[in-house]
Automatic annotation (TrEMBL), chains A, B:
<dbReference type="InterPro" id="IPR014710">
    <property type="entry name" value="RmlC-like_jellyroll"/>
</dbReference>
<dbReference type="InterPro" id="IPR052044">
    <property type="entry name" value="PKS_Associated_Protein"/>
</dbReference>
<protein>
    <submittedName>
        <fullName>Cupin</fullName>
    </submittedName>
</protein>
<feature type="domain" description="Cupin type-2">
    <location>
        <begin position="37"/>
        <end position="96"/>
    </location>
</feature>
<dbReference type="Pfam" id="PF07883">
    <property type="entry name" value="Cupin_2"/>
</dbReference>
<dbReference type="InterPro" id="IPR013096">
    <property type="entry name" value="Cupin_2"/>
</dbReference>
<dbReference type="InterPro" id="IPR011051">
    <property type="entry name" value="RmlC_Cupin_sf"/>
</dbReference>
Amino acid sequence: MTQVIDLAKKFASFSETWQPKILAEVNGQEVRIAKIDGEFEWHRHDDADEMFLVVSGKLRMRFRDKDAVVLPGQMIVVPRGTEHLPVAEPTAEILMIETAGTRNTGEHESERTAVLERI
Amino acid sequence: MTQVIDLAKKFASFSETWQPKILAEVNGQEVRIAKIDGEFEWHRHDDADEMFLVVSGKLRMRFRDKDAVVLPGQMIVVPRGTEHLPVAEPTAEILMIETAGTRNTGEHESERTAVLERI
């Protein structure tokens, strides 16, 4: 567990979008990274807060009542139960912290529900 | 909770070293940042893993049996119960994830035990 993890190397190791990869586990939370492009889908996580840190690109986090633009070196926490729609404009690389096992599409399964692998 | 947090602005808002600041809470974990310089002290956290992401500078994480050098864009997880000594060479800015309330000096109190504030 005490290996150094290089984010740039991890991002360089895959190309698919909206397929989060697990880098590490910390106190039952997973540290995940993902490449994203365009719009995801509205969803919420009833039992898990979700933190997004933008590494490159631009993330627009849409909520039902506002948008938040998150740029590299910026982060946002989406509280549990809050509907949100992540949109990359046009692409972004993000690091996420969320409870282990949290489904990327939240309360519903869809064609965008990902099977997460550890890299 | 859905405010955008800018790491550079947060780092610019304080100057003291080895005084972690809490930026956000995610599922009972605290997202903390700290400026560090030189050597801290050996300690361990019996009940909490600790993740370190280096934002700038150079962190040498010493363990009893090895060292790990962590550079900007790299991270390391120190598992609970593992003795470690963080050393900045000569300074670093780091982001940490650890269980809310975790004492920075781990199992013992010392003059370096910090009272954490939220910024």
